[in-house]
Every structure is written in structure tokens, then in C-alpha cells.
Amino acid sequence: MKRFRKMLALLVLAVAVGIFPNFIITTSAVETYGDYEYEVLDDDTVKITKYTGYAESVDVPSEIDGKKVTIIGTAYTEDEYGVLYYDGGFQANYKELKSVTIPDSVREIGDYTFWNCTGLTNINLSNNLKKIGWEAFKNCKGLKSVNIPKSLTEIGIYAFEGCTSLTDVYFSGSEMQWDNIVIGLGNASLTDVTIHYNAKMSEEIVEESGNFIESQVESKDNNDRESEIVIESKQEVENISNTESQIENSNDISNANHKEIKTDTPENRNEDNAINTTMIVIIVILSVVLGAGAVIIVMLVLKLKKKNNE
Asked: What is the Cα–Cα distance from 30 to 32, expressed in whole angstroms?
């Protein structure tokens, strides 16, 4: 009988270890860093066990006290009756929390980490994430889409159960890589939606968006410089046209003045002499015809001719 009880106890222990591996807790003391409680693991990395803040948007640190953060999750506590229960994660801020960014240093999201965070609408996962624990995102009813890295190998049971708003999963790997992920029971909210393969992760999208914006700014600067050059060229052409117009106007004025002002040339003098001679002939004829004062008229004519010659 004793032997049977011993074998039964060993069997129960084996089953417990196999089914509830995450119930084995570390014995290291809980420490505090800002709004985080954490434990130092055997490999000298950090497991964040609780977030005590109330921010709407949270960026999980990649290091605490110089040690890399590799796990975010919860802590398990044993009550007076020997019952283990979880305590921690992000449940303290389950209503206010809307967005979480998990750094690439994190390789595991533990059990119940974001359980019942109904206000959560955006989650940026680590590009090196390997495991999502039991009920990690259960009842995150505000979550509409999630980006999952191709590094992921395991999703625990009921990890996304109750995510009733989830419609799209963006997986950075191929369909074959997705099929190789071990997905536990109760994740229909994740597997029955539209899955986009070979999708870019959030950081890649942000980086590409930044590059696009930079290229647009550079293109705009180039276009502005080209526009300035075109405007300057147009102004130069207008200036040249105005200068040509001014020259033409000056030439027109000069020609007009040239027509109005006769220069003292031999041709002009000959023309004037011819006119004067004609006038003298006419005056002489009139003097002869009229008779009276002919001598005086002749003298006046001679004086006038002399004056014209001068």
C-alpha cells in the first residue's frame, strides 16, 4: 500500500511538472525598478513579474540595472493552504493600458501576462520572441490585429481566447513556418482570422516609413531647388526681355529725334540753298511786277541770302 501511494505521488508530480511547468517558481528575491517588479534569473538575465504603473502606453525596458530583460510574465504565490496562484503581469492596469511595446531582448511572454487587459488595442512584439504562455492575451477584447515574428515556436493554450475583435494576424514568416508553430488549444480567435504571411514587423514598417518620409523631404527639397532655379531663370529671361524692350524703345526715340533734328551736312545746305534760290526768284518776279520799291526788295533778298549762307 505504501509502495502504491509512493508511485501515485511520483505520477502526480510527473504529471504536474509536465502539464504545469510554469508553476515551478524561482526563489530569487523580488526587486523593484521604477514601475516594475522583477527577478534575476540563473543566467543573470531579468524576468519582469509585475507592472505597477497606470500609463496608457508602455515601453518595456530592454535592460534593468545592466541586465538584459528576457522574460515578462507573472509571479506565482503559494497561499496558506498550499495553493499556487498567479500575481502580477499587467493586470493592475487592465483598463487604462492601450499600447505595449516589447523590446527585442524578450524571448518569452509568460502565462497570464496581459490576461483580461480589455483596453489593450496595440501590441508590438519582440522580433526574437520564441514563446507566448498560457492565457497571455486572454480576453484582450480591444485587440484588432497582432504582428507575430517568425522566431516564434510556441503559443500556449487559450493564449488568445476571448480576443473577439481580432481580425488580422501579420506573420513575418512563410505559411510553412506558421504551420510549424505549436499552437495550443483554445486559440480559435487567433487561427480563424485572416493571416498575412511574410508581413513586415512594426519596427520595419516604422523604419520604412521614416525612409519614405526622408526621401519625400529630400525630393521636395530638390523640387524646391529646381523651382527656384526655374523662377530665377524666368526672371533672368524677363529681365533680358525688358532690357531688349528698353533698347528698342531707346532706338525708336533716337530715330524719332534723328528725324526731327536735321544735321548740318552739305546735302542739307544744298537743299536749303535751293529753297532760298527759289524764293529769291519768286520775290524778284513779284518786285518787277509790282514795280514799287524794287530796289529795297532786292536788297532785302540779298541780305536774306547772305544770312542763310552763314
From this structure: 7
- For residue 183 the three cell numbers come to 499552437
Q: What is the pLDDT of residues 183-202, one digit of tens each?
A: 999 999 999 999 999 998 75
Side chain identity at residue 183, one-letter code: I
For residues 46-66, give the mean pLDDT: 95
CB 15 within 8 A of CB 39: no
Give the residue with greater pLDDT, 189 vs 264.
189
pLDDT the model gives residue 94 = 81
Q: Measure the CA–CA gap between 161 and 194, rounded to whole angstroms.
A: 16
CA torsion angle for 219, 221, 223, 229 (degrees, to 10)?
-150
Specify the long-range contacts of residues 141-145, CB closer than 8 Å, at least 24 apart. Answer: 141/165, 142/98, 142/118, 144/168, 145/169, 145/170
C-alpha gyration radius of the chain: 51
Q: How far apart are CA 100 and CA 117, in angstroms?
A: 11
- Long-range (24+ apart) CB contacts under 8 A made by 219-225 are none
For 292, the 3-state DSSP assignment is coil
Helices (H) and strands (E) in the chain, counts: 6, 17
CA pair distance 210, 124, nearest whole angstrom: 17
How buried is residue 136: exposed, middle or buried, by Cβ count under 10 Å (0-12/13-18/19+)? buried
Report how far residue 260's alpha carbon sits from residue 273's, in angstroms, rounded to the nearest whole number: 20
